[in-house]
Amino acid sequence: MTDDPETERLTTQQAAERLGVKPETVYAYVSRGLLRRHRSGHGRGSTFDAAEVDGLSRRSGRRSAPVGPQHAPLVTGVTLIEDDRCYYRGVDSSALALRHGYEEVAHWLWTGELVPGTRFDAPAGQVAAARAAVEALPATGTAEDRLHAATVAASAGDPLRSDLTPATVHATARALVATLVEAHPLVGPPPPDGAPLAARLWPRLTARPASDAGLRALDAALVLLLDHDMAVSTLAARVAATARAHPYAVTLAGLGALDGPLHGAAAAPAHRMVREALERDATGDGAAAVVGARLREGARVPGVGHLLYTGDDPRATTLFALLEDVPGAGPAVGAARRIVAAAGRHRPTFGNVDLALAALSVGCGMQSEAGQVVFAVARTSGWVAHALEEYAEPAMRLRPSGRYRGPRPPRPVP
Predict the structure, then answer these.
(1) Which of 375, 354, 376 is nearest to 301 (CA)?
(2) Alpha carbons 250 and 380: distance in angstroms, whole number
(3) Rounded average pLDDT over 290-306
(4) 404: left (phi over 0), alpha (psi -120 to 50) or beta
(5) Other CB atoms closer than 10 Å to residue 345's CB: what's the count?
């Protein structure tokens, strides 16, 4: 988005000074929808509407902007997004994805302890109950419906679910994440006993046998999607946790917000777009055709651009690089890159992690909902990390007061 030359623009630093906050807090306001940022005229960096910044400052009644009931940004030690990088507890998430498996990183995010070879397993009875719940869904059930059903079934069978001591929460989360994977029916060759989570998830997404490079890419995708600061689903999960909801209920709160087309469900439209671009390539420029079709319909181009990044989405950059080595994924990666080029013909843009997930799912013969399943399984551990933070805070602190805009009482009974 370009800047309006008739509007006073502020740099991130200027906006922070005017609001009396740190620059990273300005981006926290952006992620919560309190401020809109625009790409600078040079294509990098952000600018802000001075009037909008001043209005936010006035609404707070002081030199900081209200966010939630604390009238301050929600403080977290889990994830920082800064300078087009994503960090988990100060460590670059892309570096973690290239060096460690998902289960290792999730356990480290919860406990601060990195245990090589960590595996998430679930009791057989819990998995059986979740599978039965999933199988009972009608044929019209979606991936989100299956995840909800599996979570509810796992919760119903856990009499200790309300034990919020950290060690119990860790054990609950490990079993829940494993259950979310194993509740899905197998469509490919079963994995060996003791296989890591990514290897157990793969044959539930595609009938194609897993390659080493494919498993590395899927495992890395799980790590890269583990958390992303205060995304709407994470905020929903924290609100549930502040009321001392157990981890299953926290996960259900996160899943409910994740199901929006602008959040976790964005991967499916990106999958369909990449697949359509490949199908059209036989008769012409498929990427330009699918991008043009969406623009004519007045729809956004899925998988392109991101609210929190000004240059590239580092998660997508990492995943695209890994996909270069995955057998059969080359055409899908090429189609995704051509889509970005077509969408950015008249303005700078980049592919985000939804597009990289689409290249993974299309290139590996996965179903269109595979990206959403990967997203949800990965992010469940992130929601638990935030819940653990929230359990250590005073209960019910995330209880905002509404600003009433209706007619003033007293009014007659209708």
Answers:
(1) 354
(2) 9
(3) 86
(4) beta
(5) 9
